[in-house]
Specification:
The termini are far apart. A four-stranded mixed beta sheet has the order 1-2-4-3. It is of the alpha/beta class and 156 residues long. The chain has one domain: Collagenase (Catalytic Domain). It is built from five helices and four strands.
Length: 156
């Protein structure tokens, strides 16, 4: 565990209208929460996309022909290069909006969850098996509770 404050530089770009999408400061706060105690410095790029762009990226990188809520791209730096670049997240706004509505969650709560979820992937956490999934979900629940959000895995 790393102690002390996190210096987290988060760049947010929008591939669609920003209407109903949280401000960059919110994404920064959520990313910092995920990094706290795990890393001292991080540079993260977050791109908010529409469904066609989300679908193209998911198809290109994962071979899945649909838009998904969040994609994580950990930085792959050359050996010996020590920069705080953590990686990139792509969040598909229409998918997030539909999921939030379907699950009875606020849009902000779902964006917070997916940002934290994505950053945890950038930090190397995964949910490929039940044990990993349980551990990652517990971290997400705790971080979101600290931010004032309810358990993201309780669907209304």
């Amino acid at each position: 565990m790393t102690r002390g404050p996190v210096q987290c530089d988060v760049g947010v770009s929008y591939g669609l209208s920003r209407k109903c999408i949280p401000a960059p400061a919110s994404f920064k706060r959520w990313a910092e929460a995920a990094c706290q105690g795990r890393i001292k410095r991080a540079d993260i790029a977050i791109r908010i996309v529409d469904a066609p762009e989300g679908r193209r990226l998911n198809h290109h990188y994962r071979g899945k022909d649909y838009a998904t809520n969040v994609l994580s791209f950990p930085a792959k730096l050359p050996e010996g290069v020590k920069l705080p670049v953590l990686g990139d997240l792509v969040i598909c706004a229409p998918v997030v909006a539909k999921e939030a509505a379907d699950q009875g969650k606020s849009l902000a709560a779902h964006y917070a969850h997916l940002t934290i979820h994505g950053v945890l992937h950038l930090l190397g956490l995964d949910h490929e098996n039940p044990r990993e999934a349980e551990a990652m979900e517990a971290i997400e629940r705790g971080l979101l509770a600290d931010l004032g959000f309810s358990d993201p895995y309780l669907v209304n």
